[in-house]
Design goal:
By secondary structure, the protein is an alpha/beta fold. The chain has 4 domains: 2-125, NusA, N-terminal domain (N Utilization Substance Protein A, Chain:P, domain 4); 135-198, Nucleic acid-binding proteins (OB fold (Dihydrolipoamide Acetyltransferase, E2P)); 200-275, 2-Layer Sandwich (GMP Synthetase, Chain A, domain 3), CATH 3.30.300; 279-386, GMP Synthetase, Chain A, domain 3. The protein is built from 12 helices and 15 strands. It has helices at residues 2-15, 20-38, 77-83, 102-131, 201-211, 213-216, 246-251, 256-264, 279-286, 313-317, 322-331, 340-346, and strands at 45-49, 56-65, 74-76, 92-96, 137-145, 149-153, 158-162, 177-188, 191-197, 220-228, 232-239, 269-274, 294-298, 303-308, 334-339. The strands form 4 sheets. The protein has a 5-stranded mixed beta barrel with strand order 5-6-7-9-8. Strands 1, 2, 3 and 4 form a 4-stranded mixed β-sheet that branches. It has a 3-stranded mixed β-sheet with strand order 10-11-12, sandwiched between helices. A hairpin with a 4-residue loop joins strand 13 (294-298) and strand 14 (303-308). Helix 5 runs antiparallel to helix 8 (256-264) and helix 9 packs antiparallel against helix 11. The radius of gyration is 35 Å and the shape is elongated. It starts with a helix and ends in a 40-residue tail after the last helix. It comes from Ureibacillus suwonensis. It is found in: Cytoplasm. Residues 354-386 are annotated as: Disordered.
């Protein structure tokens, strides 16, 4: 058993990366428990595992005292000095008490400990690998599903895609390859538990980082994301290099870059707008593809009133208020949209301080000078009434 155990320890250290010292400490601790359990011993003992020969010995440990109260844990000074005359009260006397048939028990115990430690080490390696990949995209294969989760094989471990992290209407078939976003990695008694998502805004961010080199290199920065997974998303971008078109870089030649992301998300529509530190400009951009005549800002309440042409009102609001809702999430400002006619009746338009256009007549058909970028390729420009 000795040589086999030593060979096993050497192999585990090389193949699994498990420290030999950790394994030896675990084996010694387990052998102490096994000795007490199998030989009905309550005394204090120490197990010595010789790492060169593989020999295992058990030693009892007793404290030297003037008067013995518990013979299992203590030894008198007189008896101790019969063993060695240098002992003094408070010293520890060790004597070998290795049972004759302890080898079989030791072998079985060592095997159990090694198996358990290997399992724990493998789980720890997997945990450390994936905890560093939290907030990142991974590729996997759908294996199975139950009432609550879809389980995805990530190679070394299985991840769970909960129902609330699944894109509404998206089909998930066994053996289908899929990209998911890691939201949480936890240690459990059965190994690392990995939770992934298809609805998290971080998935959209990572996809853009993968498809747009300017974002990956830090030339273009994603400032904010508002997402209603499976339906529509808005993303604001900013170029640190004034010569770079942030929106154009994300869209790509003939829309190739953004179209690749749309395809990955099974047709989810994506509006890309330019970020601005000026809330007037940013809110107007965020309501794209709608035209905006003016934005009135209330700094104290962090709210805005947006005036749009009458014929653009339904487009600005969007189906079930989606466009306005996403714009508010994207900018962090409350947005109240009013038609040009209503704004005129309220006396808040035209506004001579408007940065967009100076109104000189009552011609409501006049087009504003501000024109948000409109990429029909990926934007669903529909003006259906609410």
């Amino acid at each position: 058993m000795s040589s086999e155990l030593l060979d096993a320890l050497n192999a585990l250290e090389q193949q699994k990366g498990i420290s030999r010292e950790i394994l030896v400490e675990a084996i010694e601790a387990a052998l102490v428990t096994a000795y007490k359990r199998n030989f009905n011993q309550a005394q204090n003992v120490r197990v010595d595992f010789n790492q060169e020969t593989g020999e295992i010995k058990v030693f009892s440990r007793k404290e030297v005292v003037e008067e013995v109260e518990d013979p299992r844990l203590q030894i008198s000074l007189e008896e101790a000095r019969k063993i060695n005359s240098v002992y003094e009260p408070g010293d520890i006397v060790e004597q070998e008490v290795t049972p004759r048939n302890f080898g079989r028990i030791a072998a079985q115990t060592a095997k159990q400990v090694v198996t358990q430690r290997v399992r724990e080490a493998e789980r720890s390696v997997i945990y450390e690998e994936f905890v560093d990949r939290t907030d990142d995209i991974v590729n996997g294969i759908i294996e199975r599903r139950d009432a609550r989760n879809i389980y995805i094989n990530l190679g070394k471990v299985e991840a769970a895609l909960p129902l609330n992290e699944q894109i509404p209407g998206e089909e998930y078939k066994p053996q289908q390859r899929i990209r998911v976003y890691i939201t949480k990695v936890e240690k459990t008694t059965r190994g690392p538990q990995i939770i992934v998502s298809r609805t998290h805004p971080g998935l959209l961010r990572r996809l853009f980082e993968m498809e747009v080199p300017e974002i990956y290199e830090g030339i273009v920065e994603i400032k904010s994301i508002a997402r209603e997974a499976g339906d529509r998303s808005k993303i604001s971008v900013y170029a640190h290099d004034p010569e770079v078109d942030a929106v154009g870089a994300c869209v790509g030649t003939k829309g190739a870059r953004v179209q690749a992301i749309v395809n990955e998300l099974n047709g989810e529509k994506i509006d890309i707008v330019e970020w601005s530190e000026d809330p007037v400009v940013f809110v107007a951009n965020a309501l794209s593809p709608s035209k905006v005549l003016d934005v009135i800002v209330n700094e104290e309440e962090k709210s805005t009133t947006v005036i749009v042409p009458d014929y653009q009102l339904s487009l600005a609001i969007g189906k079930r208020g989606q466009n306005a809702r996403l714009a508010a999430k994207l900018t962090g400002w409350k947005i109240d949209i009013k038609s040009e006619s209503d704004a005129r009746e309220l006396g808040i338009y035209p506004n001579e301080n408007s940065p967009f256009i100076e109104i000189e007549s009552d011609n409501q058909e006049e087009e504003p000078s501000f024109d948000p970028i409109d990429y029909d390729l990926y934007q669903d420009v529909d003006g259906d009434e609410e």
